[in-house]
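I need you to check the entry underneath: sequence plus C-alpha cells. Let me know what the C-alpha cell row says about the fold.

>
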Amino acid sequence: MKRLSICCLILACLSVTTSFAATVTVRPEGRNGAQQVDDTPAINRAISRSKPGDVIYFDPGTYIIDLPGIKLLADRTYRGNPSLPAVLVGSGGYTLANSQFDRATGISIEYLVFDGGGLRLRGDKVPALQISVTHCTFRNIVTDNQNWTTHMGIFMETGAVQSHFDHNRFYNIFTGGQYGLKDADATGIFGYGLSRSTISDNTFDFVNEGIHIFFDTTDGTDVVVSGNRFTRVHRISMEFQHGKTNGLIVENNIVSDPLNPFWLTYGMSVAANTDTGKGIIVQNNTVIANTPLDKSKVKGNYYPYGIEVWGDNTVVRNNRVIGLWGIGIGIGDSRNMLVEKNLICGKVATYGKSINQYYGPQPGTQLLENTVTRNCPADALAMVSTVNH
C-alpha cells in the first residue's frame, strides 16, 4: 500500500493537523502578546475540511471563541483531553458552539469546557438526532443579553431524539450573574422536547435552574432523568411541562442546599396535564430544604413544593422530602395518580402541608403507606449529612 503523507497547515492563530487516521487536531495560540487571538475562524476552517465520522480533537489550552461561534457539522465527534482541559472562552451574549440549522445529527461532544457561553442544538422544525454530550463543563454563563437563548448551558431549540447528556457539570449560570427574589430564565439544560433520550449523572451547582424541558416537539416516550445532583439552585432544580410525556421517568436524583427561597424555589416539578402526560414515574428522589429562611428579605419567603406532580396514571413512589418545604408533595391536575411509600419529614411536617391536592381532590388519587413525621429517621438524617459534605 502506498504510504500517505500527513498534510499540515499552520495558521496565524491556530495550528491544524489533519491525518488520514480520521482525526483533525486543533491547537490554540490564545494570545499574541497581551492581545487575545480569535481562534474561531481557524477552528471552523478545520471542521469544514473534516469528513463524516472524523474526530475533531482539541489540544489542551484556552480557545478564544467569538461570533459566529464554532459551527458543528453533523456526524462528527468533538473531543477534548480527559486529563487536561480544552477551554472554549466567550465574552457572553452568544453561544460558543452551534449545530447546523438544517442537520443537527450524529454530534458527539466530549471533555470540553464551555466558559462564558453554551451549546445550541438547532433544527429546522425537526428535533436534533443522536446527540451525545458527556464529561463537559458549562460554566460562568452570566450574560444579560436580551436574547434569552444565550442564557443556557445546553439549548435544544427543537428538542432531541435518541440522545444522551451525562456526566456533565453546570456551574454559575444566572441571567446577568444575579439571583434574587424574582423569576429568571438561565438554565443548565433547556429544550423543547425529548424522546428516547437520557439526562443522567450530571451535577448542577450555583445555577438559576437545573433542567427545564417543555415536551412540545417530540413524542416524549422513553425519557429517563436519573442520578443527577443539584446544589445551590435558585428556582426549580428540574421542571418538566406541557404534553407528550408518555413514560417519562424521573428517578434517583438529589436536590439540596437551595439558594434564597422565593415563590418558585421548588425541588422538582413534573407538570404535564392529564390529556397528554401519561404513565409518568417519579421515584427514589431526595429533595432537601436545608438552607434556612432569610427573614430579613421580603415577606413571604418560603420553599413552596418539594415535589410537584401532575398527569394521568402518574406514580410517585419512594421519594424523600426533607426539611422546610411549604408543601411536601403537591398534586396538580391529575387522574388515577398513585402516591405511595414516600417519606416526608422534618419541618415540612408541621410548617406546611405534607401532601396537598391544591386543585381539590383529583379523580382516582390513591395515597398509600406514606410516612409523615417531624422527626426524620436516622437514614434520612444521614442523607442530609452526606449531601452537606
Q: What stands out?
A: The longest strand covers residues 325-335.
